[in-house]
From TrEMBL:
Main location: mitochondrion
One Gene Ontology cellular component annotation held by this UniProt entry: mitochondrion
GO biological process: mitochondrial proton-transporting ATP synthase complex assembly
Protein name from the UniProt record: ATP synthase mitochondrial F1 complex assembly factor 1
Coiled-coil stretches: none
Keyword list, A-Z: Mitochondrion, Transit peptide
PANTHER family referenced in this protein's UniProt entry, alphabetically: ATP SYNTHASE MITOCHONDRIAL F1 COMPLEX ASSEMBLY FACTOR 1 (PTHR13126:SF0), CHAPERONE ATP11 (PTHR13126)
Family: Belongs to the ATP11 family.
Pfam family, one: ATP11
Location of this chain's protein in the cell: Mitochondrion
Transmembrane spans: none
Annotated source species: Papilio xuthus
């Protein structure tokens, strides 16, 4: 049996529809002759609307909000954070007799099927990078997202580079969690190379996005492009004159030439 109360509520909902007056007579007839069918049609319509709503929400890239909702634990102000050691990943005594090329192959093979990014950097190149890391310890990178660009804050400390979504940093400051941490291991500098390994939060980034940030870091901190050099200096020395959209322009104008 279809209760009168249920029918009344259904009609109240329909009356909120701007096209109700146009179809009022047909609705009234169906309501009287077949109240069960009338309610079934309304339920089907509501289910369809709910599915459409869920589909729209599902299309939104919510990963960028993950770090805002999950801050990391507060660290003691007196805590000294040291760079991680290569020995924790690679047994150095096993590569003592290896040359740089062999070590690069071992490093690449080791990380090939892992959800991390990695690289082998010539020592002279990393020396330049590290000097810029000290001169320009903070910077910003645009990351392409489905809804446009998300800005990722980059902070250099020692031989480590911490990447944090700007929105998360604005909310949680020093307690904002990193979405990518790149560590440069210098223990094999005497062989002319520095090994890099980057671990990323899979709730915020995928491998391609992590590599995109690493590539942008390399272009700004390793390259000799005068425009990028100017942006680094402006962001760190004259922040009031810095324009975020200049970074987007640089990214969109990347040339392989």
């Amino acid at each position: 049996m279809t209760s009168p109360t249920k029918l009344e509520k259904a009609v109240e909902q329909l009356q909120k529809n701007p096209y109700y007056e146009k179809y009022a007579d047909r609705i009234a007839t169906l309501q009287k002759t077949s109240p069960r069918e009338f309610l079934q049609r309304l339920e089907d319509q509501q289910k369809t609307k709910q599915k459409e709503k869920e589909k729209k929400l599902g299309a939104i890239d919510t990963r960028q909000f993950s770090s805002v909702l999950h801050p990391k634990e507060t660290l003691s102000k007196d805590l000294i954070v040291e760079d991680k050691k290569l020995e924790a990943i690679l047994k150095l005594d096993l590569v003592t007799e290896k040359d740089a090329s062999d070590i690069q192959n071992i490093w690449e093979e080791y990380h090939k099927n892992k959800e991390v990014i990695s690289a082998t950097i010539p020592l002279d190149v990393y020396t330049t990078v590290h000097e810029k890391m000290k001169d320009y310890p903070t910077f910003l990178f645009p990351l392409p997202r489905s809804e446009g660009y998300e800005f990722i804050l980059c902070q250099c400390h020692g031989h480590t580079v911490h990447f944090t979504p700007l929105l998360a940093f604005q909310v949680h400051k020093e307690n904002a969690p990193e979405c990518l941490t790149m560590i440069h291991y210098t223990e094999l500098g005497h062989k002319g190379i520095v090994l890099m390994r980057g671990e990323y939060d899979k709730n915020v980034l995928n491998g391609q996005e992590a590599q995109c940030l690493a590539n942008q870091f390399q272009m700004y901190f390793c390259g000799k492009d005068l425009t990028k050099q100017h942006l680094l200096e402006t962001f760190n020395k004259k922040p009031d004159a810095f324009k975020h959209m200049d970074l987007v322009t640089e990214l969109e104008n990347i040339s392989l030439v």
